[in-house]
């Protein structure tokens, strides 16, 4: 079931419950409320308090952006601020992010949100962008498009079918975990890009994680990536931030990156 942002709060809560594959009884037990009251909330026979909306949203693991939508639908003010990464309240967050990016040199690292929009990057990330078509680098830059578009990084990704599957699986989880139509539209777009054909599947016993194998200056560089998020965020922007750091998966890659680092 889907519900638009203009739907009553009960309809939206029911959609979230069904998205999480919970029955009314299961959610009622989890939230410590009666099934009768939950049913009345979902059908609009009872207007939930602000506290009840937040309580149910927490139990349903609703993203902060969508918790604000639920509150607005119930007639309450949003509970979670949303500021730009360059806004004064988020200055400590921005400083921490830039420190992580700088500290990761000479290895690539980028910052993006849940929709894949590129928010920041260190100088070493330019390694991936040198042959990307200019139209893909016009703001707002989207890391999924840059990675998988035929005029982006895709022609230089040696294991494109595996890396593509990895990125699409991650994006599919975001689609399932949010109610953001922009993420669903992005998934449909990038899933339609070519490059998913593979004559053979990788042996899962030979890798500990899906590597990114990238051709650069005649060499095949191998990376593994780690995605870090902020714990216990109370701001929508912060809750959607992810720092993706790429580490060399072999000594040859590490040496190339160290040799290319500015003195």
From TrEMBL:
Record domain HTH cro/C1-type: where: 13-67
Gene3D superfamilies on file: 3.30.450.180, lambda repressor-like DNA-binding domains
Highest taxon above the source species: Bacteria
Pfam families assigned to the protein according to its UniProt record, in alphabetical order: HTH_31, MLTR_LBD
InterPro entries per record: Cro/C1-type_HTH (IPR001387), Lambda_DNA-bd_dom_sf (IPR010982), MLTR_LBD (IPR041413)
Segment forming the signal sequence: none
PROSITE patterns: HTH_CROC1
Record GO terms (molecular function): DNA binding
UniProt protein name: Transcriptional regulator
Source organism: Virgisporangium aliadipatigenens
Organism phylogeny: Bacteria, Bacillati, Actinomycetota, Actinomycetes, Micromonosporales
